[in-house]
Design a protein that fits this description.
Elements (H helix, E strand, L loop, with lengths): L1 H6 L4 H15 L4 E4 L2 E4 L1 H24 L7 E7 L1 H18 L3 E7 L2 H9 L5 E7 L10 E16 L22 E4 L4 H14 L4 E5 L3 H9 L4 E5 L8 E5 L5 E10 L6 H10 L4
Parallel strand pairs: 3-4, 3-5, 7-8, 7-9
Antiparallel strand pairs: 1-2, 5-11, 6-9, 6-10, 6-11
Length: about 280
């Protein structure tokens, strides 16, 4: 209650009175005790979810009544490094010139972190990803739009040998059954994809290292510390290569994720429309 009062420059008693009036109007309890604090009841949470849609519709109505009005506001965007670098930064730079009243604030988060922040309404837009072998399961409060997909392969040292060396066959994962594997430290999708690949090849991977940076993954592979997944189209440094994975392939898909009912908010709609050009 105190936090709400401080956020809106009100007194705690005013917040309490407004909640009491809203409770009387809806005819159901919206908050309940939680120790010395209060929390939303299930009905209160549903009403809060409706409020997201209602407020977005009000913003859209204002814009519709004044079609010449500029989108205004601060847009909080969280996403993984590649999406920020290749898609969000170009959009943000463009908006600085075309829509200077839209302020974009960017944070780096892995998908699980971004989903939680969206659900708490601490982000307006998340750029996330998953793999075909490890699909994400965001909350029903969220909606995701695919942006692009890219094949991934296995990053190995140039001198790596496989049982099929000298043939035209693709790399055999069984050659790395006893090799340490490198996975992402902040997103379980990477590890789940590796475990699925290994299981289909008939072994359990020895996951040893957890690294977020693709540059650092490359360095570990180059230094002989293991192998890991890497974008197939990535230009690698001398001494390592990325081998295609065919049966099954590994496909990473990037998404723009928002809370349901928010996409009509003008600053968010503006950014989403520009991100769609990267599909």
């Amino acid at each position: 209650m105190r936090a709400v009062a401080e956020a809106h420059n009100l007194t705690t008693s005013t917040v309490s009175q407004q909640l009491a009036a809203l409770t009387a109007e809806t005819g159901t309890a919206l908050i309940e005790p939680d120790g010395r604090r209060v929390r939303l009841t299930p009905a209160g949470q549903r009403l809060a979810d409706h409020a997201v849609t209602i407020l977005a519709a009000l913003d859209a109505a204002r814009l519709d009544l004044d079609p010449d009005a500029e989108p205004v506001g601060t847009l909080r965007v969280g996403g993984f490094a590649t999406a920020i670098r290749t898609a969000m930064l170009p959009v943000a730079r463009s908006l600085q010139h075309s829509h200077p009243l839209v302020d974009v604030v960017i944070y780096e988060y892995e998908p699980v972190e971004a989903f939680a922040l969206l659900e708490r309404d601490d982000l307006d837009l998340a750029l996330t990803y998953d793999y075909n072998l490890a699909p994400a399961s965001p909350s029903p409060l969220l909606e995701a739009v695919p942006l692009w997909s890219t094949p991934w392969g296995l990053c190995v040292p140039d001198n790596a040998r496989t049982p099929d060396e000298g043939t035209n066959s693709r790399i055999d994962l069984r050659a790395f059954a006893d090799t340490p594997w490198i996975v992402n430290s902040r997103n379980t999708a990477d590890e789940r994809a590796v475990r699925t690949l290994a299981s289909l090849a008939g072994f359990t991977p020895r996951i040893t290292h957890q690294i977020d940076s693709l540059d650092l993954v490359e360095l570990l592979v180059l230094s002989g510390y293991g192998v890991g997944l890497m974008p197939l189209e990535r230009k690698t440094r001398e001494g390592v290569r990325v081998e295609p994975l065919i049966d099954p392939p590994v496909i990473l898909t990037a998404y723009a994720v928002t809370r349901r009912g928010r996409t009509s908010w003008p600053p968010l709609r503006l950014v989403l429309d520009q991100l769609m050009t990267y599909r």
